[in-house]
Design goal:
homodimer; alpha+beta; Uridine Diphospho-n-acetylenolpyruvylglucosamine Reductase, domain 2; Uridine Diphospho-n-acetylenolpyruvylglucosamine Reductase, domain 3; Vanillyl-alcohol Oxidase, Chain A, domain 3; 3 domains; 7-stranded antiparallel β-sheet; 5-stranded antiparallel β-sheet
Chain lengths: 462, 462
């Protein structure tokens, strides 16, 4: 049965005995569970457990630990930095079956879900409650995975990231113990903030099996708009002024001209072929109208053109669908290409400089790489399009991504705003955090997972 | 020179050599530095270093470590749970001299300060920038101390707590190394969230010497109001509905009838002698007017009486001054009394029940204890007034506080929303977090501070 040299027979037998058909070493299943949306070579796990409860996750961890075999959690497989690659083999715990919404509490604006619940599934469950869950990475990721990578998305400028959204967690520790972090109190000063420690730890300190997250009231009115700008600097200045005025925009997205071209082609839109901002405003009808007017004034001051509102739900959906399809639209720019997707985040005062230097660098490389981002937070993404078989091009792209990460860090920013470190960005950890802070992370990892069995080879450089 | 048995002469000599007159073992100075605003007996440190730089803090920690002597940071001495008591003696590092505002960056809405800068000092420095720092615990605390206790205050319902406010820190570790956590990026997915780990760690993992905090645009318009209610339940229901509607209130404060009486007497106000809510709304003039109307409607539905607005700055200041003076006003209810001040935080759906059960319990005890709180967050305080020499009364008060903490925890809340654990609430840590999570905290503490020299005897039960 066990075709994997690294998987001890005794462990395979024990997992098969415990989980029956919900344990598999089928190569296709293992390969699928070793892949995410990164472009790194993907080593598969040696087996997959399809868990249905916290206790089953704990049992899996206990068995793996007894055999010194790594454990890697899997949600929807949509991570971007190789977070779920089985670099040392081991057992993948697929949490997709843990997809129950356990409680929705409208009075408290919170919900408790199993880790496999996806953001869209939660929002479906919230239908009719008057509430929504705002965090929206591109993919329909699982909430457990989103917590693990400290995900965010287009709404973060108004509603925060997973860091601000998770109130409490159930976590299976490396020693298989089940703990609960946080509480449903909106704030607490009771000891070390374990919730925030596990958020963003990418499965390296334990596996999150349940989460309680904050919800928000659906806005009474929503206004959406897009506006073309003569330059990226003009667009960024518009964003800076908007935020300095305290305008509570829900979304401010930047697309560079290349992304706009890609979207026009893919989504049959006819946006002007220059840097463009997409906005969304939430509030009462009167406050949205008022914000609209202020925003339009700011945009005009900075040369904004074609300011267009989409206040009807269907127009708005079309607009944001185009934005959310940008990834696929951009892939269409180079048939047969794949994307090396990277993101950085800088203080907003440095954003225009960072983008300008990055685009100048890009031009030198000859690569095709649309840029788009959650600019209200100073966060932008680049999709580095490469032909999969062109090793030289791929290397140029990784070199470019390296310079981009270093540039963001030099500007007092971070090498990743929302994708996480995974395998791909470990090499920037010392530069970003310094050896001292990195050493504290290592100390914590070693203290909680002394045998390095929880998702080894991620976050911390070897 | 060294009159303290626990302070090794060699250490005293080394500190005197290094800091000259900025090192003191004067008993009055030591006593002052061992006291906070808690009511617990306060053991003084054996010496005090008045530090002026991160390097001096590091040097102090290095010397103390060499002699296995504890180190305790001191800001303004306004903690409420004995956070700075020298329970095992040691050296207090007074950071009040580290009071430089290092940078204010209006474009990025952030500022970097030394840890001794107080919240009022920062807001003075922000004068004219159009920005403010919203976190306002009652005391004019230092930002380092506020970060250490994960402080918040009246604005937290809108602007968050120190957890959400701190972007980056400089920390002196127990081994005297200086590290930097976080960056000025508004969000990051780059590794373990050390910033959030140090926020709320009460000096037990290291000493914060500098912080970068988020700022917010001063609202264009501010509306303040108060409204009396027939019952606490009616007031709380008003709050719940306000928040469910997504009204972005900046402050919602509850005072019970006893607090209102105290305030009327102390601040010469003439509020109706029933549970009262104080509100503050921030926004554009139009949006404040609109929110006002909605709020007034909600309050009326719940029997709100005497809804009064204070839109003039002087009326508003008077109103909020009365609220901020509530502590002293309440002390005036029982001449010669001191207050055992406690706070809890529960999910807002449980708030009315929690308060009702607490007031029923209070009645049984015969204690005098006004109740007030940041009810938008489900957070309330009680000032348990006791005669300092009445040991039986003091014991009754601590027993009552214990039941209150246990009640909040049983309601999926926390034993402290904003005061921290210190010495006073260590006994609730296992009940609130469970042995498993508490053990993870112990593992982290031991890994980072293996000799338990950083503020020993705090947060973690012995």
């Amino acid at each position: 049965m066990n075709t994997h040299a690294r998987l001890p027979d005794a462990l395979a037998d024990a997992l098969a005995g415990r989980f029956g058909e919900r344990f598999s070493t089928n190569p296709a299943i293992c390969t699928h569970h070793g892949q995410d949306e990164s472009s790194l070579p993907a080593p598969p796990p040696d087996g997959v457990v399809f868990a249905q409860s916290t206790e089953e996750v704990s049992a899996t961890v206990a068995l793996c630990r007894a055999h010194r075999v790594p454990v890697i959690a899997f949600g929807t497989g949509t991570s971007l930095e190789g977070q779920l690659h089985a670099v040392r083999g081991g057992i993948c715990v697929d949490l997709a079956g843990m997809n129950r919404v356990l409680a929705i509490r409208p009075e408290d604006l919170d919900a408790t879900v199993e880790a496999g619940v996806t953001r869209k599934q939660l929002n479906s469950a919230l239908h009719g409650s008057g509430l929504f869950f705002p965090i929206d990475p591109g993919a329909d990721a699982s909430l457990g995975g989103m917590a693990a990578t400290r995900a965010s998305g287009t709404n973060a400028v108004r509603y925060g990231t997973m860091r601000e959204s998770v109130l409490a967690m159930t976590v299976v520790l490396p020693d298989a113990r089940i703990i609960h972090t946080g509480s449903r109190a909106k704030k607490s000063a009771a000891g070390y903030d374990l919730t925030r420690l596990f958020v963003g730890s990418e499965g390296t300190l334990g596996i999150t099996t349940e989460l309680t997250v904050r919800l928000h009231p659906l806005p009474e009115a929503i206004g959406s708009a897009f506006c073309a700008f003569p330059s990226i600097a003009a667009a960024v200045d518009t964003v800076i002024q908007t935020i300095q005025l305290g305008l509570p925009v829900a979304r401010i997205e930047l697309l560079d001209s290349l992304s706009v071209q890609a979207i026009n082609r893919h989504s049959k839109t006819s946006l002007r072929d220059t840097p463009t901002l997409f906005f969304e405003l939430h509030g009462s009808p009167a406050s949205v109208a008022e914000q609209t007017e202020v925003l339009q004034g700011i945009a005009a001051e900075h040369g904004g053109m074609d300011f267009e509102w989409a206040n009807q739900p269907e127009d708005r959906s079309r607009l944001w669908q185009a934005r959310h399809d940008a990834y696929y639209a951009c892939l269409g720019l180079m048939p047969g290409a794949r994307s090396i997707t990277t993101d950085v985040c800088v203080p907003i005062s440095r954003l225009a400089d960072c983008i300008a230097a990055t685009l100048a660098d890009l031009e030198q490389t000859g690569l095709t790489a649309p840029l788009l981002g959650h600019v209200g937070d100073g966060n932008f993404h680049m999709l580095l399009l490469v032909h999969p078989d062109d090793a030289a091009m791929t290397e140029r792209a990784y070199d470019f991504a390296k310079r981009l990460a270093e540039r963001a860090i030099a500007m007092d920013g971070t090498c990743t705003g929302e994708h996480g470190i995974g395998r791909g960005k470990r090499r920037y950890m010392a530069l970003e955090h310094g050896e001292g802070a990195l050493d504290v992370m290592r100390i914590i990892k070693h203290a909680i997972d002394p045998e390095n069995l929880m998702n080894p080879g991620k976050i911390l450089p070897d």
